[in-house]
Write a structure and sequence with these properties.
Layout (H helix, E strand, L loop, with lengths): L9 H17 L3 H17 L3 H7 L5
Keywords: Membrane, Transmembrane, Transmembrane helix
Length: 61
């Protein structure tokens, strides 16, 4: 009885490792981090938490 990656089709393992490599590459990319930060700020403003964000900003500067 085979288990782990031996039980899968090779293309599934290839997709897994390709996704893992892509995630690890994008994790610290400056453009990815900037867009993630901008999206998070936009989401907070749209949810009405912009004032709380501005109130907590002096602690990080």
């Amino acid at each position: 009885m085979s288990s782990g990656f031996r039980a899968m089709h090779p293309s599934v393992a290839l997709l897994y490792y390709a996704g893992l490599l892509l995630f690890a590459t994008l994790l610290f990319h400056p453009l990815f981090l900037a867009t993630e930060l901008a999206g998070l700020i936009l989401l907070l403003v749209l949810q009405g938490q912009g004032r709380q964000l501005l109130r907590g900003l002096p602690f990080f500067c």
